[in-house]
Design brief:
alpha/beta, Rossmann fold, eight-stranded mixed beta sheet, 20 helices, extended, disordered N terminus, cytoplasm
Length: 458
């Protein structure tokens, strides 16, 4: 019975797979090998040695810190030494930086000290004296010629190159014939030298009448007559400036257009009056030109003369007023007031000269005692219109003709003398203080027309 219910095993039952054993030859035939590669040899000692970790290169650790009280930069919150310690070697760099940050106090906004805005210094008229050794360099050009010789020789040396002298020198050196053609050439030379048409016409007509009446034997006699007529034309205006010792001080107001040499003329006059024994004071009234005040101060120091100044852009009338008050308080003999150069066509500027006269008159009814106009000898016929306008505004009482040396025409002196008759006090024939000469008609004409011009030339 037992065998009946017993299940018979079938042949199809799955039997566990037995591991197959293959030989090396079989495996080699089934899987051909790739080209042999170099198998790295592994050192067992190295394989089991503890790993060596290379320390990374020390680099600055940049750590962003959240703002605590106010945004701040880490470099400003931490001292330099603390930031330097934060640059340490890995792997403890991060931990050390954190410890440093925890130890450092929380960054706070540092109160910047308030810097007060600089307060501008009050404008004070400063007198900056120049060293005596530098005075000549500051006032006289380095290439200036020495002072001219005294007398007529100095006038001749300085005016020999003028247009007037060269024109007549070339004319009479040819020993011209005494005829109307000679008179025509003389007339042309006079007009070219800025003598002016009215003065030239009067001179030529007088010579023509005398020539027709046979007063001249030759051209040299006509030249001598022309010389005499020119000297006679200048004699009425040859009046030197006389200082009134009763006026304390004797006020001289200088006027003129730009660039004629007013400030330089004042410095030269100061030396002349100082050498004559007068006590002196200068008023720096040219407050428009930047260097005028300093230039006058140098002249004052050089001559040992006090200078009253208020600085640039000050009121010229105020400067003159203060200087006159100071001069009266000190008992000064002479006060010379400078003014800014101005064009004679500008009515507003010309009215300022009238204002200066009125302001001076409030202290002294007779001031200014002399209104000295400085005229550039190279100006030509324009000097006539300049003098006309300045005379109307300021009442010119004397003239100084400068820059007659060199190529100045020089004939304008005759035109000024004939039309206005205002005294010519001084003439400038050089750049040295000694070259400001008292006007001498005979020396002036002799320099332009030497007496021996006809026979010896120039």
């Amino acid at each position: 019975m037992f065998s009946f219910f017993r299940r018979k095993k079938t042949d199809d039952a799955v039997q566990p797979a037995k591991p197959s054993t293959l030989s090396a030859e079989d495996l080699a035939a089934a899987f051909p090998k790739a080209p042999a590669e170099a198998t790295p040899q592994v050192d067992i000692s190295e394989a089991f040695a503890p790993p060596v970790v290379e320390a990374p290169v020390a680099e600055p650790v940049v750590i962003e810190v959240a703002p605590v009280a106010a945004p701040a930069v880490l470099e400003e919150a931490l001292p330099t030494t603390v930031i330097a310690e934060a640059v340490i070697e890995a792997p403890v760099a991060l931990q050390a930086a954190v410890e440093i940050i925890e130890a450092a106090p929380a960054p706070q906004a540092e109160a910047q000290p308030e810097v007060a805005a600089p307060v501008p210094a009050p404008a004070v008229a400063e007198v900056i004296p120049a060293p005596p050794a530098q005075s000549d360099d500051a006032l006289i050009p380095a290439n200036a010629a020495p002072a001219a010789a005294s007398g007529k020789l100095g006038w001749r040396e300085r005016l020999r190159n003028s247009t007037f002298a060269r024109s007549f020198g070339g004319l009479f050196s040819r020993n011209p014939k005494l005829d109307d053609d000679l008179l025509d050439e003389i007339e042309t030379a006079l007009i070219t030298a800025d003598v002016g048409v009215p003065a030239t016409t009067a001179l030529i007509e007088d010579l023509r009448k005398r020539m027709k009446s046979r007063e001249f034997a030759d051209a040299n006699a006509l030249l001598a007559a022309l010389r005499a007529d020119l000297i006679a034309l200048l004699q009425p205006v040859s009046k030197p400036l006389v200082i009134d010792t009763n006026a304390k001080p004797f006020v001289i107001l200088t006027v003129g257009v730009n660039g004629v040499g007013k400030t330089t003329t004042i410095g030269k006059l100061a030396k002349r009056f100082k050498d004559d024994g007068h006590s002196l004071m200068l008023a720096a009234g040219d407050t428009f030109r930047a260097a005028a005040v300093a230039q006058l101060q140098i002249w004052g120091e050089r001559n040992g003369v006090a200078v009253v100044a208020q600085g640039q852009n000050a009121d010229a009338a105020s400067v003159a007023f203060d200087a006159l008050q100071a001069g009266k308080a000190r008992g000064t003999s002479v006060l010379i007031a400078d003014t800014a150069g101005r064009l004679h066509t500008q009515t507003g500027l010309m009215n300022e000269l009238s204002k200066i006269r009125r302001v001076l008159g409030k202290i002294d009814d007779t001031a200014p005692h002399e209104v000295l106009m400085v005229i550039d000898g190279t100006t030509g016929q324009n000097a006539l219109s300049q003098l006309r306008q300045f005379h109307a505004a300021a009442g010119v009482t004397g003239l100084v003709v400068t820059k007659l040396d060199g190529t100045a025409k020089g004939g304008v002196v005759f035109a000024l003398a004939r039309e206005f008759g205002i005294p010519i006090r001084f003439a400038g024939i050089g750049e040295r203080p000694e070259d400001l000469r008292m006007f001498d008609p005979e020396a002036f004409v002799d320099a332009l027309l030497p007496q021996a011009l006809g026979s010896q030339g120039t």
